[in-house]
Amino acid sequence: MNIWVDLSNAPHVNFFQQLLKDWKEEGHTVIVTARPLSNTIQLLERNNINFHEIGRHYGKSKLAKILGLLVRGIQLWRFLRCKKIDVAISQSSFYSPLVAWMLRCDCVYTNDNEFAKGNYVGFIFAQKVLLPEALKQWASTKFFRKKVIYYSGVKEGIYLHNTFGKVRHFANSTEDNHIFFRPEPWTAEYHQKNNFGFSSLLEGLANKYIITVLPRGDEQALFFKALNNSRIRVQETALTIMEIIEQCDVFIGGGGSMSREFSFLGVKTLSTYQGELLAVDSYLVEKKVMKHIKTINVETVSQALEEIEESFATESLRNDGKKSYNLVKHSINFT
Questions:
Q1: Taking the mean position of all CA atoms in its chain, how far away is CA 81?
Q2: How far is CA 276 from CA 16, 115, 293, in A?
Q3: Radius of gyration (C-alpha) of the chain in whole angstroms
Q4: Between the CA of residue 248 and those of 3, 156, 159, 171, what are the distances in Å?
Q5: Which of 23, 67, 165, 296 satisfies CB 3.0 to 4.6 Å to 28 for a cystine?
Q6: Separation between Cα atoms, residue 185 and residue 169, nearest integer Å
Q7: How far is it, in rounded angstroms, from Cα 56 to Cα 63?
C-alpha cells in the first residue's frame, strides 16, 4: 500500500514518527511531505525521516489561509499525482483531505482542536475522522458525525504512552530551577499580540529561575534575544522531547501540543493559552496534570508555579494512549 503522510506543523513529527516505522516494517511505501512551519523541518532532519518539502505557511489572515490552502494543495497534487497513493493520513493537515479527494484516494483525518476552522475541509473530504473522546459532545451535533471514530485520552498519549521522562524534583528555594517557555503561535487567529507582556513576565521570572525560550520561528527568536538577559536563553535548534525533559523543572506553554506532552510526562506544566481552552486541555486540567491561567504577570504565574504539583500521567492515561496508537495504526485499512 502507498501511504501519504502530510506534516504541516512541528508536533506532527512526534505523532507520526513511530507510525512511519511500523508501516514501513509492514511492507508499506510511505511518502512524507512537509512545509517549513515552526521547527518541522529541523525535527524531521534530526529524526532522519525522509521527506519532501512542499509549500510554506501563508500567514495569519483568513484570506491568506484560504489562498495558501489552494496554492499548496495544487503543489501537493502535482507532486503526488503519479505516486499511485492508496491512502492519505494526517494530524490536522487541512491540505491532506482536499488533495486526497483530488487524487481519488481514501483519507484519514485526525484533529484535537475543535476551534480550527480548517477542520471542515477534513470533515467534508475525508472518509474517516479520528477525534479524541473529549470532543464527543461537540462532534455529536455535527453533520459529519457518521464519519467519526473516537479514541481514548489525548493525542499526545498516542506517541508517548511508552515514554517515561526523567523529571527532577522541584524546589522553590533552589535558584537553579529551570523553566522552558514555549510562546503561543503568533500566526494563530487567537493570538492577541501581547508579546511585550510575555517579555516582562520572563524578565521578572528570570530573577528566580533560569529560562529557556523555545521559539516557533525566527521572528520569535529575534524578539526574545533582544531581551539581552543572561538568565534567558533562546534555543536556536530544535530539541527532542527527551532532551528537554532532562533539564526541565517547569514547562510554561502558550498553547499547543508541547504543554500536553510535558504534562503527560510528569513535568510541572502551566498553560497560558489565551484563547478559549480546548476540550483536550480541559481534560488534562481536570486530571490535575496541567494548570491553566489567563492572567499573565509575574505575580499570577509565580503563585501558579507554587501551586503546581508533579503528577505523572495515570496508568489509565497511558493505557488509553496504547489503545489509541493501535487504532490510528490500523485506521489506514479500508477493506
A1: 29
A2: 27, 9, 11
A3: 20
A4: 36, 18, 20, 13
A5: 23
A6: 29
A7: 15
User: What pLDDT does residue 64 have?
Assistant: 76
Q: Cell numbers for 153, please give them.
A: 485520552
Query: pLDDT-derived band of residue 154, with 50, 70 and 90 as boundaries?
Result: very high
* Segment holding 148, helix H or strand E: strand 148-151
Q: Do domains 2-159+319-330 and 178-311 have the same CATH topology?
A: yes
pLDDT digits (tens, 9 = 90+) for 242-274: 889 888 999 999 888 999 999 998 888 999 988
Q: What is the mean pLDDT of residues 170-192?
A: 67
Alpha-carbon distance values, 114 to 131, 142, 221, 248, 282 (Å): 9, 11, 29, 30, 12
Instruction: Kindly report the backbone phi and psi dihedral angles of residue 18, in degrees, each rounded to the nearest multiple of 5, phi listed first.
Output: -75, -35
3-class secondary structure, 118 = coil
Contacts of 224 (CB under 8 A, 6+ apart): 183, 199, 202, 213, 215, 232, 234
Question: 3-state class of 13 per DSSP?
Answer: helix
The whole-angstrom separation of Cα 208 and Cα 197 is: 18
Q: Which CATH architecture fits 2-159+319-330? A: 3-Layer(aba) Sandwich (3.40)
pTM beyond cutoff 0.70: yes
Q: For the domain bounded by 178-311, which CATH number is listed? A: 3.40.50.2000
Q: Which three cell numbers stand for residue 218?
A: 525566527
pLDDT band at 170 (very low <50, low <70, confident <90, very high): very low
Q: Where are the domains of the chain?
A: 2-159+319-330, 178-311
